[in-house]
Amino acid sequence: MTSMKQSLSLLDPALLRPALAGAFAKLSPRVQWRNPVMFVVYIGSILTTLLWVHTLGFPGGTGMPPGFVLAVAVWLWFTVLFANFAEALAEGRSKAQAASLRGLRRDTWAKKLKGEHRMDGFLPVQAPDLRKSDVVLVEAGDLVPLDGEVIEGVASVDESAITGESAPVVRESGGDFSAVTGGTRVLSDWLVVRIGVNPGESFLDRMIGMVEAARRSRTPNEIALTILLVALTIVFLAVTATLLPYSIFSVQATGAGTVVSLTALVALLVCLIPTTIGGLLSAVGVAGMSRMMQANVIATSGRAVEAAGDVDVLLLDKTGTITHGNRQAAAFLPAPGVGKARLAQAAQLASLADETPEGRSIVELARREGIAPKPVEDAAFVPFTAQTRMSGADLPAAALDLSGEPVPLRKGAVEALRRHVESLGGRLPPEVAHTADEVARRGSTPLAVAEGAHVLGVVELKDIVKTGIRERFAALRRMGIRTVMITGDNRLTAAAIAAEAGVDDFLAEATPEDKLRLIRQHQAEGRLVAMTGDGTNDAPALAQADVAVAMGSGTQAAKEAGNMVDLDSNPTKLLEVVETGKALLMTRGSLTTFSIANDVAKYFAIIPAIFVGTYPQLARLDVMRLTSPSSAILSAVIFNALVIVFLIPLALRGVRYRPVGAAALLRRNLALYGLGGLAVPFAGIKLIDLLLAALGLA
Length: 698
Description:
Blueprint (H helix, E strand, L loop, with lengths): L12 H13 L3 H4 L3 H22 L8 H37 L6 E5 L8 E5 L8 E5 L8 E5 L1 E5 L1 H4 L5 E4 L6 E2 L4 E11 L7 H10 L7 H35 L7 H11 L2 H20 L2 E3 L2 H8 L3 E5 H5 L5 E7 L5 H12 L5 H12 L11 E3 L7 E6 L11 E7 H10 L6 H12 L3 E7 L2 E9 L6 H10 L3 E5 L4 H11 L3 E3 L4 H13 L4 E5 L5 H6 L2 E5 L4 H6 L2 E3 L6 H39 L17 H25 L8 H33 L4
Parallel strand pairs: 10-17, 10-19, 17-18, 19-20, 20-21
Antiparallel strand pairs: 1-2, 1-3, 3-8, 4-7, 4-8, 5-6, 5-8, 9-21, 11-16, 12-13, 13-14, 14-15, 15-16
Helix pairs in contact: 1-4, 3-4, 3-8, 4-6, 4-9, 4-22, 7-8, 8-21, 8-22, 9-21, 9-22, 10-21, 12-13, 15-17, 21-22, 21-23, 22-23
C-alpha cells in the first residue's frame, strides 16, 4: 500500500505534465490578481505584446525594432509562466499525496452489532450506511469501516496504509490506545468498535481534504511579507511611471538624445520589483505543508506549520518522548512490618482496574513472583485517572477478615496517596517516604500502596532516557527554544530525569489542569507554545497550545483538539515538526534576501542601457560592459525569468535546517543569499549577453 511518506521527485513526469498544464491554466486574470507582484508582470506582458503588434503595423513607432519588443514580451510571459509552474508543481506534489490517500478509501461491509457485545449478534451493512455511535465487530482479516473507539477486545492492527510502518500495533479497550482508524486492517483476534464519526467525516476523509486544500489561506507572516512586496512594487511603479515624462523633457530641453521606450520601461519595472520572491512565495508555503506531510504529519493549515517555526517553548511528556515510555514494575519495596507478599498482592488487586502499561506491569511482576491475586467477590474497582493519579478497589470488609465499611485499597503516585491516606486519618510513614525518595533519586518512579489508612510500601517503576535526546535538546536551546518536561512523577523523579535528559525545566505531578495553566502562563508572557498529546485528558491543553500535535493512535478528542496529527504516533516528532517549521521560515527569508539582493545587480545592467541615449554620462555605470543597450535590457529580462526556474528546487525542498541562533542565522543568510544574490546576477547577465552576441542577437 502507499503511504504519506512516499513522495515523487521534482522531475517525475507524473508531476511535470500536470504542472505545465497548470502553469497555463493559471494565466487567468482571476488567478493572477491574487499575487500583486506577478500581476504587475502579467499586465506588463500584455502591454509589451500589444506594443509588438503595434510595431508590426507602424515600424519604428515604438522606438524599438519589432524583434526586440517580441523578445521582451516572450520572456515576460515566461516569467509569469515560470512562477505559475512553481506553484503548480508544489500543488501537484500535494495532489499526488491526496491521490495516494484516496486510493486507501474504499467502501466495505461491516458487522453491525445488535447490542454492544460480541455475542449480541450482528447484521451485515455497508460502511457508508453506518452512523456515529453504531457498534461494529471487526475480526481478523476485516477492515475497520470507520474511525472509532475500541470498547471491547484486544487485537493486532495493520496501520501501514496510514502510517507507512509495516509493524502492526496493538489496539485495545481503555487507555489512550483505543482509537482505530477507518481503512486499517485487523490482523488477529477481534475488536468491538463504537463508530465515532459519520461517513465523510473520517480521519482519512479529513486528511484528503487537508492535503487537497492547496489554495490555503495565507499565514500572518506571509501576509506581512506580501504587504512589503506590494509596497515595494507600488514605489517602483510610481518611480517608473515618472521616468517617461522626465526623458521627454530632457530630450526636448537639450535637443539631443532619444526618448526612453515603453518596452524598456516595462522591462525596467519588472526587473526592479521583487519578482523572484513574488513568483515563489506561494510555492514556498504549499511546499512547507507538503514537507510536513512527507514527515507523516498532517497540518490543518499553513498557519500551524508557520507557527511551528516560531515556537519559543516546547512542552514534552516524559513518557514516550524523553524516555522510552515502557515503564515497568521492577520491585516491591514493603514498609517496615509488612511482608513482601502482602504488598505485592495488594498492589496487584489495586492495579486490576488500571489499564495503563504501568498498571499491567505490576500485575505481571506479581505473577512472575508467584503471587496470585486473592479472589474477592463484590469488590468495586476504581480505574486509574489522570486527575486522581490512583487506581484501586473498594474491598468488602469480610474479604480482609474485618467488619464494618468496605476497605479502600489504593495504588498511585506518592503525593496522591499521601493525601488519600491523610483524608482517612492516617499518615505516610517516614520510612516509606524515605524509600520513595531513594527510588526517585535513582531516576525511577515510586508508586505507593495503601490498605485503608495503612501504607503498605512502594512499587518501583523503571524507565530509560532515550539515546541522543540530550543532544537534540541542546540544539533546540541554541535556537532559543525552551524545553519543559511534563510528567506525573514526583519532583525528585522528575528532577533526576530532567537533569539526565538536559531539559530546561520540568512540571512534576502534572494534571490536565496544570498543563493548561502552564501553557496559558507562557502565552501570557508572549511566547508561542507547542506540545503533543494523545489522550482525551490532553484535549484542553492541545486546544490551548499554538502548535498542538495529536497522535494518530490517540483518542478522537485529542485529534480534534490538535492542529496537527502525527500518523506515526511518535511523541518525539514534535522536534521534527519544529525543525520543519523553522526550515519553512528560513526558506522564505533566504529567498527574500536573494530576491532583493539580485535586484541591485540588475539595476547596473538595465538602467545605463535604458537611459544612456538620454544621459550619455550613465555609460560609466555599465560596469559589466555589455554588448549594446538592447542586449543589456534583454539579458536582464531573461535572467529575471530564468532565476525563478533555478530556485524552484530550493523553494520546494527548502533550505537545510541548521540548529543555530537567530543572530548566526542572520549572518549566514546575509553572507550566502545576500552576497550570493549580488554576485550571481552580474555573472548571469554577462553570460547571457555573451551568448546573445555570439548568436548575433545583441
